[in-house]
Amino acid sequence: MKASSGSVLQEQALTTSLPPCVKKYSNSVSLYINPTKSENCQSPRPLLLFLPWLGSNSRSHEKYIQLYFKLGFDVLVVESSMLHFLWPKTGLEFAGRLLHLLVKEKDLSSRKLYIHAMSIGGYTFAQMLVGSSMEQRKILEKIHGQVFDSLVIGSIERMARGVARMVSFPLLESLMVRVTLLYFSLLKAHTADYYEKGIQAFWESPVTCPALFFYCMNDPMSDHTTVDKLLEYWEKKGIEVQGKNWEKSVHAGHLRRHTREYTEILNNFISGLQARVPKSKL
Predict the structure, then answer these.
(1) Which among 232, 213, 56, 215 is positioned nearest to 147, based on CA atoms?
(2) Residue 16 has pLDDT above 50, yes or no
(3) CA-CA to 233 of 20 to 30 Å: which in 32, 64, 154, 226?
C-alpha cells in the first residue's frame, strides 16, 4: 500500500572494515563483492542489480552499496549512458547484453536477485522487459524484490526536462528542453515510439514480485500523480506495492535528504522479503 508521506580489481575502501573487491565485466558493469563474512557459506550471497541515475559516478554509488552490504548483498552496478536514452535502439541492445550476462554468468545466475533502479535506471529496466527473450524473462521472474527511486514517468516533456538537466547549465535548460522535444518529434519512430513500448511493458508486463517506490511531489522529472496511479494499477494486478511520497525532496536524492527515513523503509522492505525466503539447510 502507498504511504503518505572479467578481472578482479582492488578499489579504495568504502566505509567497511575491509575493502570490497570489484569484478569488472565491462566499463559500465561492475560487481562489488561484500567484504564481510557470509553467515551461510554454503549459499551464495543475494545479488542486488543497481541501476543508478544518469551521470552518477562510483563515489555517489557508495552509500547505496553500503546499505546493501549491511543487508548481506553483493552489488552489481550497471551504468547507462545518455546515448542509451537518446537513441533507444542502443539502450535496447545494452539491456540485451545485460540480460545475457545475468543468464549466462554462473556466478550471477545462481543468486537470489533483487533490483534497485534510480531515475533513468528505471528506463533501462523497462528496456530489459521489452527486449527479454523467453529464457531471459525467466531470470527477471526470479527477482525477489524491486525498488524504484525517482522514476522518470509522466510525459515526454518530463523526459526532455531530464535530458536538459543532465547536459546543460540551468540558464540553458528551457532551450535544451525545446531542442530535445524537437528531436523526439523529428525522430519519433526511433525515440518516442521506443519510449512508449518501454512504458507499456512497465505497466502491463511488470515483474510481479513486491515493489517499493520512493518519490516526491516537487520532482520536475517524476509526476507523483502518475506514480500513484501506477501503484494502484499494480496493486489491482495482485502485486504487493509500497510507496513513500515526500512533499518536498530531491530527484534521485531522497537518501541524502531523508537519510534515516529512507534507510529504515528500505531496510524493513528488504529484510521482510529476505525473511520469506527459506534458508538452505546445513
Answers:
(1) 213
(2) no
(3) 64
